[in-house]
## 1
Amino acid sequence: MSTFIQVILRSLETGSIYALAALSIIIIFRTSNIVNFSQGAVAMFNTFVVTYLFNTMGINIWLAALGGIVSAILIGILIDLVVIRHTKKVHPEAKQIITLGMIMIVLGIAPLIFGVDPLRLPRLIEQGNLSILGADISYNGIFNILFGLLVMGGLFVILQKTKIGLAIRSTASNEHTAKLMGVPTKTVTMGAWAVAGVLGVISGVMTAPMTSVTLHIMDDVQLNALIAVVLGGFQTFYGPVVGAYIIGVGRNLLLYYGSSVWGGQILYILILVFLVFRPHGLFGKKIIKKV
Amino acid sequence: MKKIIKNPYLHFVLLGLILALVPTLAKMGLMKTSYLTTLGGTFIFAIAALGLNILLGYSGLISLGTAGFMGFAAYLSAYFTADLALPFELSIILAVVIPTLLGILVGLVSLKIEGIYLAIATLAVSEILKKTFEEFDFFTNGFSGKTAQYPTLLGTFELDRAGTYYFVVAILILVMLLTYNLMNGRLGRALNAMRGSEAASQAMGVNLLNHRLIAFALATMYAAIAGVLYVHFVKYSYPTIWSLNLSLNFLAMIVIGGLRSIYGTLLGAFIVFAVPDLLLKQVPFFSDLSYVLNGILIIVVIIFYPNGLVHMFTDLKRFIVKLVKGEK
């Protein structure tokens, strides 16, 4: 029983990492109509910024994380100003390819700035374990779970209850009409890229202590987040988040009770099979096209 | 006479003959012999990119699994020829058919829904394949990599590097001819109609799922052919080669070169693979930046020149003609 709880607690931790990344992808998708494949690469870059601030400049880890958030906002705004704003007339498929091009740029630049050696980033809370019903979890793990939930909860409150949220939702539902109604859609899109960048770097800083900071640190998170978005459906903001927690829990259960090598792979196959029966995901609706 | 010169088939054959001159030039000392490997590799990648161009250019679907399928075929062929000692011809057929069948299976699952699902499904499949390459030691030799030999045709003709190069060029030209015929035949017309209006083409009796599936199966088949050629030309295969980066490079090739253009794909392959190797390596700083430059090129081409660089020549010609006429 205690191992089961242990596995679930770990899963919630990875689940919140995936959920933050998935939320970051869906925010971009809803406001810019782009599936942002470069989300992971940009998050990797910003995680490197945090690591650089901590390791090379010797700044306190919390301040370094704050520095990463600032850089995430700046890079998000930069991407929107330099690239995305000029793609209004570009075909939707070509937009996804643009984000693939951004991956190439980030993957090429990062080693020039930060070198090719794997780096280490410690936990935000270095020590301490909590025992729940015989299962151990570090304070850092609890912090990750709670902080992830807090950030996501905050975003959902903003989305549903505030004027800014209304602007985002109206841009998401129909950009052209929103513009006519006086919503500053350009600013909304720019803000979405900045927020997506911040969510990315938070998930990056949470991932970093479990492995080492390399060019491919976010590949796994990115893949799971994309699959979470597909699983949850592209039509809602909460669907991908739910999908991410399902993947986090399912993956760890399969890894522990199924196969320690193939657990993740089995989960992908299960999800692909699930999509045969519900092609639009858990919360997705079929969009009826009119001629 | 004019008809013969304008014959597109002749153009492909002529191109093949010109490309086949490279080993002779290298022997005469006009070219470095290392160029042979670079160019052969470029042509192999161009074959896989041609398949992806059918998929993306004609049906607007993105596959991120090209590298995975290519690697799968490469390992299969290496396993069949080296471990099972099957004849080269049989192993090439098996190594192309098995990944294609897998591709059709993936397509059946993910093509029911339009849009981005295929990209994500193929991304997941290529992750699964990559894990397979790493874990199935008896089949892939794990991280230490699998080696293969130059092909032996019909059991008697043992090819060397130049011979394999000729073989690659021959297959490239065949694939180009096949693509040209397919895209100017019924399949090409149907895909074009789908691109114009899905509803209208459906009303004309075009089955959307079937045609998407055919396009994806072709893309997988071409990737598999390229994988087989790769493993027998370069003679080794590591799990790390078949990563997302390679799949992205294929996308870069067709976007930069030109969607729906056969020559454009070759041009794109040349820009993405050969130019960094042949030119940029001479300049120390730029060799690190080639990946970045490709990324920037993709974005710039999509935003400012969406038809691809292959149209540069016709546009340039028109511009010059305009200039000359304007002066008169």
Note: Chain A has a mean pLDDT of 85.
## 2
Amino acid sequence: MHYLLSHRTTYTYASTVDSAHHIAHLRARDFPGQKVTSISIVTSPLPALATQHVDHFGNLIDIYRIDKPHTRFDIEVRAEVEVRFPEPPVAASTPPWEEIRAALHGDGFPRRVDVSEFIHESPLVPSVEALRAYGAVSLTPGRPILEAARELTSRIKADFEYHPGATDISTPLGDVFAGKAGVCQDFAHVQIAALRAHGLAAGYVSGYIRTIHSREEIALRGADASHAWVAVWCGEDAGWVHLDPTNDLIAQEDHVAVAWGRDFSDVSPLRGVILGGDSHSYGVAVTLVPTG
Amino acid sequence: MESLRGLSSSPASAYDELVTGQKSIRYHWQGILSVIRALPGGLGERVESARRQLDESGATVNLLDDRAAARWTFDPLPLVIAPDEWSRIESGLIQRARLLDKVLADIYGPQQLLKEHLLPPMLVHANRHFLRPAQVTDGAEPQRHLCHYAVDLVRLSDGRWHVLADHTELPAGAGYALEMRRVLARSLPEAFRSIPVRHLRPFFDRWHESLRSVAPANVSQPNMALLTPGSLSATYFEHVYLSRVLGIPLVEGGDMVARDGQVSIKTLAGLRPVHVLLRRLDSSFADPLEMRADSALGVTGLVEATRSGRIALANALGSGVVETPAMMPFLERVSERLLGEPLELPSLDVWWLGEPSALSFALANLDLMIVRPCLGQDREPIIVGMLEPAERQALVDRIRAQPGQFVAQYPMTPSLTPKWDGQSLVPSAVVLRAYVVADHDTYHVLPGGLAREPDGDTALRSLARLHGTLKDVWVLAEDAADVQLPPMRRFHQLAVERSSADLQSRVADNLFWLGRYIERLDNDARLLRTTAARVAQGAVGPRDAVELRLLGRLLDQANLMDHTSALAPPESALFQQGLAAVAADDRGLATVLDGIQRLTATMRDRFSIDMTTAAGPEMIEVRKRLLAARGNLDPLLAALDEIVRFVATLSGLAQENMTRGTGWRFLDLGRRLERGLHILNAALAPFSISPIDWDASMRLALELCDSTITYRTRYLGQLQPAPVLDLVILDDANPRGLVFQLRAIKGHLDYLARASGVTVAAPPDSLEADLESVVRQFGGDEQAWRHEGLALALLRDVTSDAEQHLDKLSEAITRAYFSHVPAAQAVGSSGGD
């Protein structure tokens, strides 16, 4: 599927901001199954300094410094992206999850260093006993990894209420789990924690989801905003499989990924430090148009 | 505790630093022992003098940190190390520093060590000191990750020194070592005359060179600074001390801004680029943009500036990742791989429980072992043998759940060294902290260090902290000629500078307010003294009653007494109780004393030891006496006298010891401004009553301006308003008069405008002319002024005019010179829906 993407974020400040630094994880990158054919980012006011880097996870970050006084900051990404995530493997034929865990642990020296990084606790995904128990329901002995992970995805969709405003980014994961409500990032963190509690590798993917399904016209949750889901490691053959607990889906061609990391804190779309400004409000507008 | 006794190996098996197996004194200890034996007054009095010096310098305790635990004591007996012994240690430390620098370069670079299974990846990925933003993917690689380094060493029963801990993030204590040596050299000079003890000072010169060497390549005269978290830091004393020894300014994150990849210090004259920061701030706080967003201690954009190669941090960001004891079991193999050499200095035996074989070994021997979390924030050792059964089970569960988060080791038996217990020498366990700095392609080791007696029953307790008993380390030279000081620090041409405008805005701000607070303290103390002296006389006559009512109003206005008691009749118990409570926490005096203490503590790097002592320990004493005086007028008066004298001491020191640069200008500007306001608000306030009672007003005005004696000498005690007002307002030779303050203020503002290029307007000259013409109104005969309502109104107008000018001036100075940047705040979008 080929998409045209536009993603605009606007900060409006209550008083003048004298200067600002922003760091953005907004520049969509290539992933297996995803190719970014063109991308550009524009800000207003224009930055005094703009730099680009590749971060630890291979994501593209942009850093902006704005020197002139302003009361509003706009940043807009426009991109063309070609997506076709690999056909997921037959769940029943994936290896038992314990086998994956053993390989990731490797008696302290796992073979895949890049994957084993995702088995540890991370800033927003601490180990929570209740989530270990929640994961154990699906991770029964000898069960194929993808079957178990896929069921977990469905359970989260069924057990949690999608409720914007129920949580914010500072809500601890334990509270999110107890409240059984939240938004995409909460669902992703819940699933990541449930998998990692059993020694499995799970990452957080930020991106977008297609608004309109061509025929049925079903609006999917997370449209018109950034979206987030989970990548779970299913062994050397299947690799990372992207699961969307908010919509109970395997990402195929409705999802466009921007960046990934251990949790939201690694890929926060836009973070900044401003001088002045008092309070601020922000607005986000995302359009993801399939073009064939 | 019983079980523990069996645990810790008996000191009988410990290596004895002093005595050989044949019970003879080792050769290298004979010098110090004979010096001590020959001391005429014994060691005791020398110890007292050394301890007093350390207390006074502020080394033993952080002034702003009243936790008793932060204190350490000093033992006069050094740990003496023989030359050949030291050269082995030295060589091993240099090798280890080279190794850890390469390990850091790999961890923050290609991570070959993880891929080749030489280091378990968890030690990096789950390590709180591993900072992903510092990973070099495309930016400039730090020239050197490890610029300086501290190592804790113990000598075990086998007589070999072992590495107990590596300190790579914030290696602390080298400054303490130098200070301790300074003090010991003063209190035990005979020892240094007869024993060839190697000098410490050259190490610090090399350190300075070492910092220069990591500066960006295109900068020939790098500006360097020491980045401190500020005066609340437990090792702030050392930051101040090091910045002096290394000759580089002390800066806080708030003193700097990053613009266009360049980090600069905010000074009075504008931004001054900085190229190298000796980092004593935890890496994770270095930049709220890319590290912890809640950090108010860092510089926004610092990480990006390091990536662009325009500034170097020493040590590089994230250098703490190799501190974990879990690295130790793997270093031998890593050394073979990276250096092609076996490790010269062994590490203590440590088992990382992430390996199944280590885990089962540790679980089988758990009760004899010490377990430590090794990757997170908490790294406190747990002595398994001391745990209750339930606690032990909980620990085993934690270990089984996340074995890779723990290391285990056996209790160790450090060597014994003599210590002074107040009466005699007794053996005590010793841990040696050594210091290393980068020196071109290699490293250089401080020939000395800090020795300390580890706290608690097992030497593993409180490893990283500089608590307990500290002692100097004497590395002996082969022969006395080696003790000659090597050549001075390499010569770098410095541009001659006088009274520079490089003063940091924050420091200027602090000095200005310190000036104001010191003056306010003086004024408050005089006001209270004037009042208390009158009350103490007992019988209150009609004349005293008028004065005391006026004083009560002033005390109320200055918040020195609570409103109700200040306005109560002076002879009432209420008034006297209020007066007795002046030192209470919520009163003005406490606020002022707090302010002075806080500001002098935060500016220890700007003042001489004498000044900080006056403002620190001496002031704490005065304050105690003030509190003790509660309810009793005689001791209160004595304490107030002391405060007035204390202010005089401080003023004298500032006047005689501070160069007349921008710093002193701000201090004095604060004082002049505050004194001007005091004259207007306090000294002239009594004139607002009916002129019938002006005898009281005049007496008070003279007393509050400390001008009574001058007046009496000039006018033989006859009180008239024109001469009184002339003395307290117009006389430009009276340092307690208003015009004197106005002219001094103008002089300072002119100077600052020239030095910094930033101009602040002084109160207009017309103000002085107005004051003069008003004072002339009171020149007539007594009948005239006693009934002259107009002159009174004019006086009121012109004083309120002057007051407004001074208030506005304070604001203008703040706007023009001080860092009035609003506090930074974090903004961010949510994760999406």
Note: Chain A has a mean pLDDT of 92.
## 3
Amino acid sequence: MTAIPKNASSRPSKRAPEVDTTDHSVHALTPYRVISVVLLIVLTILFIFPLYWIITGSFKTQQAVNARVPVWFPVEPTIGNYERLFQKPAFLWLFNTVLLCAASMGLTCVSASMGGYALAKKNFRGRTFLFSLFVCAMALPKQVILIPLLKEMAFLKLHNTLWAVILPTVGWPFGVFLMKQFCEGIPNEMLEAARIDGAGEARTFIDIILPMIKPGIGALAIFTFITAWNDYFLQLIMLNDTDVLSISLGIAKLQSELSTDYGLIMAGAALGSIPIIIIFLLFQKFFTRGITMGAVKG
Amino acid sequence: MIMAQTAAISQGMKAARRRENIAAYIFMAPSLLFFLGFVVFPMGMCLVTSFFNYTMSDFSFVGLANYQEMFGDAIFIRALINTIIIVVVSVPITCMFSLWVASIIYKMRQVNTSFFRCVFYLPVVTGSVAVTVVWKWIFNNYTGVLNYLAKNLGLIAKNVNWLGDPNTALWCIITILLTTSVGQPIVLYVSALANVDHSLVEAASVDGATSMQTFWRIKWPQIMPTTLYILVITTINSFQCFALIQLLTSGGPNNSTQTIMYYIYYEAFKLNRYGYGSAMGIILAIIIALFSAIQFRLAKTDNG
């Protein structure tokens, strides 16, 4: 597994020496550190390789894809795979995915910031109980509840609609938990000052709380978006008809129908992953903060 | 006079108290609604249906029959063993690997730290389906890169059907699972290591501690809560390994990659045996809770 093809290693090496030099200038050059950094670069190549293989594979011709000697780079790139992909409802699948992620994100941010604020700053009866319930639920495997959830959605006539995926995503307590962490950082004096100034509950929340937890909402938004995008199991159970599929389900469908048409499947995989990777890279800072804040005092 | 005043004050406090309660519940209402409706209620229903023979045509109380069936079900036992192998192998490796990566990258320049953090997070963001389909190709018997490389390096004499061979399939799954599970722990460890109390580290180095000693005596205890959190989330994720199985092997060949989560899916959604599936789900939840409890206990004794 640790072997790297010559051609593949030449690709990220543009960055590799840069990492190496900065590292040496900052730290003592112990043998352990040198070996570690070399190993790290090898691992970097291994971790990037699947994505590289998806993207290059999606531009390969049928022959290049099925070659016994792997074609490391598509020398005669083709967009044929994408043409065939868009003969399927791939755009619709992508649109469905964006829609369900955006709706999950919006609803989660609103409900979680309100709930998190109440849990952090309001002293109400049943608070401890509710909070323990949230934490316990988070420790449980969420896929276990899919069977009754499917029945519930069928009963509500929401099965096979995007709502069947959105609602459980919003219900997942991680968001409330995360927003509680952020709200705890707000000084109580600010809330008292607002009360003395005669601000009502809604006013206080909108004018004081929301601006202060904006970074938290950003973290939660991006976290929810990415989680919803990749929640394959939930989508698989809830969505069946071709026109409500998400992009993940679409790729899986292509794979089950045309299992060896790797060019087409890679085109689908590229369509399903490139947008979310771009979003991740753009909002990386928020995202990292969301993950770390959610873990503090777990 | 004073009595009346205190009475009035306590009356006022009670009213304020009530207002606070009401306001709190109004703020809680949206999240509570979603949480109760789509998490707590189904969880309760899961427990209830596990005592029923629940199929497309039947819904009758059978007591513990589903649970009894499970322990006589050879496929379930196989799935349980495979799942435990996956957890026992992948959780420690994920943990140690991410700690190792984090310990190297957290001291680097900001740009480089972010770069490596992104690289290892990439498989998570790419999504289980996209990652799985490309790995399926890499493992392919005829056109896969792995066979080509392994043959050229002299590791294997002829092509291996990695996913079709009961001896290798589960290890392929574990390998992919590892690449998709180290991302989050690395992020967590990087921030935990950066938050280690520096005065202690400096004091230790003044006292002549080696960097290894400093790490295990000073830093390791301080990042223990993070380690614990990582152990718990990695365990939960490994137990729930599903997409990889469904898309790569469907539990085969010969049930060698059958896991509990996939078997639940198969029984409940392919054979429509909802009651039996729910019972397995309950057992899975209990097993996960037990594993988490053990990890907490171990971490505590380790610390003390």
Note: Residues 90-121 of chain A form the longest helix (32 residues).
## 4
Amino acid sequence: MTGNMIMNYSLLILFLPLAAFLIQIFIGKRLPRQGDWVAIGAVVTTLILAIAMFTSMLIGHEPHFAQEASFTWLDMGAFHIELGFLVDNITITMLLVVALISTMTHIFSIKYLEGDIRYSRYYAYLGLFTFSMNGIVLANNLISMYMFWELVGVSSYLLIGHWFEKESAADAAKKAFLTNRVGDIGFFIGIMLIFSTLGTFVFSEIFNGIAAGKMGGSILTFAGVGLFLGAMGKSSQFPLHIWLPDAMEGPTPVSALMHAATMVAAGVYLCVRLFPLFTPDALLVIAYVGGFTALFAATIAITQNDIKKVLAYSTVSQLGYMILAVGSGAYIAGFFHLVTHAMFKACLFYGSGSVIHAMHHALHKKHDHDTDPQDMQNMGGFKDKMPITYWAMLISTLAISGVPLFSGFLSKDAILAGTLSFASHHPGHFLLPVFGFGAAAITAFYMFRLIFMTFHGKSKMAELVDDIHESPKEMTFPLILLSSLSIFIFYTLPYFNPFSDHGWFMELIVASDAAVPGNPSAHHIAEGIHHAHYTAMALSLVVAALGIFLSWTFYFKKKLSADEWAEKFKPMYNLSSNKYFFDENYNKFLYKPFLKLSALVAHIDWDLYDKYFINGFGRVGKIISFFTGRMDYDGLDQTIVDGIGRSARQAGGVLKFLQTGRLQTYMLFALLGVVVIVLIQSF
Amino acid sequence: MMIDAAFWFIVVLTLGSACMVVLNEKLIYSAIALLFTLFGVAALYVFLWADFLAGVQVMIYVGGILVLIIFGIMLTNRITSVNISHTSVQKGIGGMVVLGILFVLGVMILNTPWLHTEFVEPAQTTATIGTLLMMEYLLPFEVASLLLLAALMGAAMLSRRDD
Amino acid sequence: MDSLNTYLFIASILFSLGLFGVITRRNGVAVLMGIELILNAANLNFLAFAKFGGMNISGHIFALFVIIMAAAEAAVALAIIINIYNNFKTINVDDVQELRQ
């Protein structure tokens, strides 16, 4: 495929969803089937184009393929902004992921949102999201990335609040948007720091500038941390993770598309794109934030009973993994995990959507509107009723837990190897691999807990089981497709070795060297990872097995009672099930003091400043104005202003008699004037 | 000598009839006095070697404008009423102002150093005027014809009874 | 007698008489006659300058244009007078004083 074609394809992939959005938002309601075929047609076309580009990438087999195109957007003398696209192997892979998950979401939503009141608008927003996500992926500069970044935020806001009649959904949408804003401020500061130092927004020029030593030291670290703050918001890293679990208020397919596979991965994508500019200090911050998030979110997921909340915290944890990978230098492993995670996590969400859909219908039949259809405590024994959903979710769970033969094993293994290698070079940071392995064990535990509680054992509401049915094929098709994509073979082709990530991915997507002088080179990092590979694999197998075994004893065999253990570790259990009281603490330590501060400021402003200072001025002003008023009215107005008026009036009263209305009188006066003027002139 | 006598006779005739025009109480007499004034002016034109303009003066003023004015008098006054008279207003102050203007004009005429270039009597004024009108003054000539057309149409339009 | 000043004095007297008529006459038609006198005075001046002041034949042309204009003016003025007569049943200009204060 020629470079020109690549660009044309990319532009089509970018703008087709936008066209679908415009059609849907303006005339969607009047089209047959509310126009869902427009959106689906557009997104399927982008999928076909993405597959074509991907195939040509595989055939071309150029690890350093890159194509750039840009145009001038703003030109104001010294201030010059170019917008443009960068298409390389990472871009193409990411485009395929976005197009694939987006297509699956569109198809899944046909049934899931059947009969929804804002069906066409839902599809319109999906189109807007796909457009903006593709924009992020294609951007070759910080400005257009920032624009699309905000657009993604908007579409996320719109879709989380899709059922805005529910107060919790509207609140969640606001929370997501505002929390993202906190991160975006950092992002913007980072962009401005870079622009003010290097005078450019384009990635390649930034890297060149840094490599040439034009920017470095603490300012670059600050810029890097600022940019990472944006990624933290979008990828919901600690402590900005609070919005993602609440975002589950949105429709489940949306959660699958945005809050599991693509949008939240944008933060990771940003870090992957900008990896060369991070200084060692910034990378350390990134690694610790990611590692801590991975472990911390996993511990919350253990105790959640809402099936979507479990998945949400799992997503936060997995995103932490990817960030950890970036921080420890193995950023290609992080991107690899992004791709594999997109598949199995989207599949898990679709699975949960399928289960919720079934529960919802069963409850509807029973006219039970109080029971929560998302609560796992009401589920159980769905295995035989929903076989496709069960198997798809099981495969994805195996993948996320890091069991060999599945994609998650490969990518997780690469990340863990990266952290191990990092720790072996910097023994002081031994906590990073501990975070990683700990999170891996806990992930395996809570994911199998989810499977066992949902599909095995006996339902707590036995009367429901009869009414549980497998979902229609529009919903099972994405499940089947995505779960099969969780098998290792798709990532290791053309090789067939389930224990090595060696394959097209690692051959085509190669790490580039850090631009910051002094950072270890890509080759150096790859070497380290290679050395740590088998150690990491063995350890990760052990921890995954441990997690699965514990889960099996607790929730399948019930040899150990979960409730008793919860009782034993009551304080810890409470912490976890209440999400470490984050919302409460934010409320207590951020919002409430802020409100108090605002009240105090208002008090000072109103009761002190206004009352004494402003009002004092007012009183003095009033007295002065009384005198000036008197002077003005009695002196100026009455004598001068009114006096002039009166005299004019009197003069007019006299002069009006000159206005005889007689033409000849006027003429006489005119002539008189002529005579007088001539006389004056001549004498 | 004869020419001098004739000249002064014509001057007296012109100014005397002009006085009649502005002072006579009866409108129709004023009109007839105007006839003599216009004739007198035409005769003065002849003294100024403007034979063509003298003819034009007689034809347009006497044959056209004066007839128009008499029509105006007839149309706007009841012809049966014995006294188609018209009074004057502000005669005193008006007279003073006019005398003032006359005085100013006279002083100006006497004090202005006029350019005195005698010009030879033209052989044929009519042909020269015709050539000039068609050559140098073509544009004003055309504009004048437009003006006449517009005036005619405007006059017809104004005097039409609206019904 | 045959000098510029003679003609200028004749013309200025004619002009003053016309002006006097315009100012003092109550009848609209008489005012119009005054205006004709003024125009004749102007024409007399043009021709006097043509003979003595070096204006040559151009003076004749100007006089011609003045006559043309006078004809047009007379036509329009009479139309206006007739219109006034139709509206006010008088042509005494001092009875037509809608502009009075």
Note: The two ends of chain C are 51 Å apart (CA to CA).
